[in-house]
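New to this. Help decode both lines:
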Amino acid sequence: MNEKENVQIQFGKNAGNYVTSTAHAEGADLAELVEIVKNHRTRGSILDIATGGGHVANALAPLAEVVIAYDITEKMLEKAEEFIHGNGHRNVKFVCGDAENLSFPDSSFDIVTCRIAAHHFPHVERFVQEVFRVLKAGGLFILVDNVAPELEEYDEFYNAIEKKRDPSHFRAHKKSKWITFVESAGMQVRSMRTFVKKFQYEIWCARMALPADDKNELSTYMKDAAKDIRDHFSLEVNESGQIEGFIGESILLASVKK
């Protein structure tokens, strides 16, 4: 099974969890994304890549002539359509496809967004190049994603626990790598903001329906980590020895195609 088939399986069976997930439905990063779009000079056509539960497409629908909610998982698109149409938005279209091989002509969109999804993409450089291709000149790209720390051992730990929780996780990249990806594709970074993310362990595991044995194994792995790693991620363990939560980080990176 390849990475993309893994994504389709994992998200297909857990699609409903992502529509109702407060971590995806809310957040300062989503509010910031909306404000940046509001301030962009042109926003007639928007493409939301890996739309998931459809929260970005739903939030941007009142600001655009048309929004394309794009995802590789049909079941996820079905849930997103129920959610968005249930909110009365009729200018959102739903398209199934691969983020690394976008099914649109060159220079099709004023804005492209991708929120909390790119860590599932095996070829991020290709994805960013595709974003550049489908953007119009002067178009805006907003990327939101979880990121790994710059220090190598912390990077390895964070990606390891994400992979143990979710087999479809490919890689959370460092902030510095995202800047490189975007600028190498030909876009110019306009702003970057970081966000502290509090992960509640039980909810985090339940979102991917992690079996009890795997959850216990993950918990042991995290508690056995070196003290500096546990401290860096603010790992919270209660008196019963159960993990309550930990701290991660995400970024919002806004760039333009010149």
